[in-house]
Amino acid sequence: NVIHTYDQVATYIDKYETIGLGTCYCRHAALLRGEDIHGMPTDVCMWFGGNAEFAVERLGIRKVSKQEAREVLDRAEEAGLIHMSRNTTEEIDFLCNCDRWNCEVVKLVLRQPKPGAVFNSGFQPRIEPERCTACEICVGRCPPEALRMGEDGLPVVDMDRCFGCAVCASGCPEGAIVMEAKPGWP
User: By the 8 A CB rule, do 38 and 99 touch?
Assistant: First the structure.
């Protein structure tokens, strides 16, 4: 499993001519069980390229334009979803937009003592103290609960838990969180 940033997903949308959109399996299953999906959107899973063509033709997945795919990405980002693929190559053919409550993969990883060590985008948040207003929005949005408020009133990142998903950064109204390359990450 690989975590992707918004910008990386936007690059995939630009790259592929065929993009398919489908329902999130995990949140759909939770709805069928009568569970709370915390207001998260369900129509946010994306297929790309040849897999999208197959899924549209044979699985009933809806083909979308690049503009529609960007709108879905924006909705997923606003909801604080984690952009995740399960590809083992550099090419991406499927992308989930996952949450911490219903996604089976994320829930399993969060049970580990150091989820950020194996489940990561290769980026990490850096807090810009002069811009931070200590609103704590980033703390509430963080899927792995890797952020807490420090004694100085600034968020502190537990790098053992952090995925590098950038949900904290995308939700910061002041732009006080910048994602930077994680040292030593491949």
Answer: yes
User: Do residues 138 and 148 make contact, with C-beta atoms less than 8 angstroms apart?
Assistant: no
DSSP 151: T
Can you count the helices (H) and strands (E) in the chain? 7, 10
| pLDDT tens string 126-182 | 999 999 999 999 999 999 999 999 999 999 999 999 989 999 999 999 999 999 998
Strands, E, within the chain: which ranges? 2-4, 19-22, 45-48, 62-64, 82-85, 94-98, 123-127, 147-149, 155-157, 177-181
Percent of the chain at pLDDT exceeding 90: 82
Q: Give the distance, in angstroms, between the CA of residue 32 and the centroid of all CA atoms in the same chain.
A: 23
With a cut of 80, say whether residue 186 has pLDDT above it. no
Q: Report yes or no on whether pTM surpasses 0.90.
A: no
In the numeric block, which tokens belong to residue 11? 């690059």
Contact by Cβ (8 Å): 27, 34 = no
Please tell me the distance from the alpha carbon of residue 70 to that of residue 113, in angstroms, as a whole number.
34
Separation between Cα atoms, residue 97 and residue 24, nearest integer Å: 8
